[in-house]
């Protein structure tokens, strides 16, 4: 009998025993094409450069607390990230995962305004149908009704505007650009409602992952968001925990939108699963406020800047940049999109196939014409996950929420090393799973 406390207490899961490129292999020898382990495995499961970096680092020094010492891999990784980061992002604060990154971003925004003498600024605006992590601050920013519901009494008061979700929410006859401007302008309305002097930050994902299924914004949306943030002195926090690190075809997803955030959160693909690591990048202006003010960021966990985690991530980012893997993600992503459209584009329960790079989403609907979501009580996405697993495919489905605003979808996030025949395998197995369930 297992003593592990699993996420799902009513199902028995396979035991992961080894990895081989794009595949996970269980203890019975069954191979699973890994296209959705929450968008972590960007390099696949047996990258020799990352394995060697972890081994070498653990032999040198496994841990040194950042309250006392910095480390060579943390310094080198920060340099490499800043070399490729957009705009004036200038400093990197390392954490152990995505929730820690967004939580730290919220704290940094607050401390920034304390340091510069605007203590009344403490309100965060985020978007509905979003996910920014599971710690209480991050969950407060998240706008997914189901994830928030049971913890609602513990959450901080943050407010939420509409996401940019063209497929479901663009009005009849409205063009994409106008739709984007309309929903971006909701930010201005909300800032004015709360009081500009009280708002410290707006947080959003450039491409929405877990909660909507690879939904990018329309052209012009983020440019307008940036303008509004600048006009009212509100910090723009972009959460690229899932969509960042090359997945959308750019090392940083916001490069596609041509905007530079004040604070940028990354995780998942940063360690590619070889070590748990996340990071928060911030602008020179924010860093300077702390450096020239109190001189101490009042936030931290024991494992921030962990030497082995930063060594692994240094090897990962070196692989991503020297092999130009974001460009490969863009190219293979186009192939995946075409293959999905060919196989599933006419399926009566497939409403939309979308995404950027190797970050694709399939929206499942009860009716294509009216875009009516499937009844969430049917648990269709969860059934597809199970059927796909039986086929030897790992994908990332998400069931709709009962507020009727969010339908079922399947998120696909294959490793950037995926080959043409593996794209065929992915589409064949997914089609079989969908046919079994719908
Ligand atoms: N932000 C986004 C956009 C995410 O998708 C996730 C996780 O899926 C998180 C934050 C939280 O990351 P973690 O699970 O590493 O804490």
From TrEMBL:
Keyword annotations from UniProtKB, A to Z: Aminotransferase, Pyridoxal phosphate, Transferase
Native organism: Meridianimarinicoccus marinus
Similarity field: Belongs to the class-III pyridoxal-phosphate-dependent aminotransferase family.
UniProt cross-references to Gene3D superfamilies, sorted A to Z: Aspartate Aminotransferase, domain 1 (3.90.1150.10), Type I PLP-dependent aspartate aminotransferase-like (Major domain) (3.40.640.10)
Protein name as annotated: Aspartate aminotransferase family protein
GO molecular function, one term: transaminase activity
Lineage: Bacteria, Pseudomonadati, Pseudomonadota, Alphaproteobacteria, Rhodobacterales
Alphabetized PANTHER family for the sequence: AMINOTRANSFERASE, AMINOTRANSFERASE CLASS-III
Cofactor(s) listed in the protein's UniProt record: pyridoxal 5'-phosphate
């Amino acid at each position: 009998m297992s003593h592990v406390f699993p996420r799902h207490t009513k199902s028995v899961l396979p035991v992961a025993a080894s990895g081989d490129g794009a595949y996970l292999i269980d203890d019975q020898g069954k191979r699973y094409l890994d296209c959705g382990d929450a968008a972590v495995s960007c390099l696949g499961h047996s990258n020799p450069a990352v394995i060697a970096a972890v081994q070498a680092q653990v032999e040198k020094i496994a841990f040194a607390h950042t309250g006392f010492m910095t480390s060579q891999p943390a310094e080198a990784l920060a340099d490499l990230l800043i070399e490729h980061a957009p705009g004036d992002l200038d400093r990197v604060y390392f954490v152990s995962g995505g929730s820690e990154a967004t939580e730290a971003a919220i704290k940094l925004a607050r401390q920034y305004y304390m340091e510069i003498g605007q203590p009344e600024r403490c309100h965060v605006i985020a978007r509905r149908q979003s996910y920014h992590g599971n710690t209480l601050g991050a969950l407060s920013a998240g706008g997914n009704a189901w994830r928030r519901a049971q913890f609602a009494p513990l959450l901080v008061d943050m407010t939420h505007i509409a996401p940019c979700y063209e497929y479901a929410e663009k009005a009849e006859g409205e063009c994409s650009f106008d739709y984007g401007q309309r929903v971006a302008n909701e930010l201005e309305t909300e800032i004015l409602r709360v009081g500009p002097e009280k708002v410290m930050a707006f947080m959003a994902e450039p491409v929405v992952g877990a909660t909507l299924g690879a939904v990018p914004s329309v052209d012009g949306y983020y440019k307008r968001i940036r303008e509004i943030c600048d006009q009212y002195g509100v910090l723009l926090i972009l959460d690229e925990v899932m969509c960042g690190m090359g997945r959308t075809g750019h090392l940083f997803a916001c490069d596609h939108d041509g905007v530079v955030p004040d604070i940028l959160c990354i995780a998942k693909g940063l360690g590619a699963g070889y070590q748990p690591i996340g990071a928060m990048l911030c602008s020179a202006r924010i860093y300077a406020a702390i450096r020239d003010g109190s001189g101490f960021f009042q936030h931290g966990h024991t494992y921030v800047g962990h030497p082995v985690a930063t060594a692994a991530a240094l090897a990962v980012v070196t692989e991503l940049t020297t092999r130009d893997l974001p460009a490969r993600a863009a190219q293979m992503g186009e192939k995946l999109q075409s293959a999905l459209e060919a196989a599933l584009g006419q399926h009566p329960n497939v409403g939309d196939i979308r995404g950027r790079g190797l970050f694709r989403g399939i929206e499942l609907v009860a009716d294509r014409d009216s875009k009516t979501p499937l009844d969430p009580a049917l648990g269709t996405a969860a059934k597809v996950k199970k059927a796909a697993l039986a086929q030897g495919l790992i994908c990332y489905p998400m069931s709709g929420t009962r507020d009727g605003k969010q339908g079922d979808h399947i998120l696909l996030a294959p490793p950037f090393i995926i080959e043409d025949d593996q794209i065929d395998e992915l589409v064949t197995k997914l089609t079989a799973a969908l046919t079994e369930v719908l």
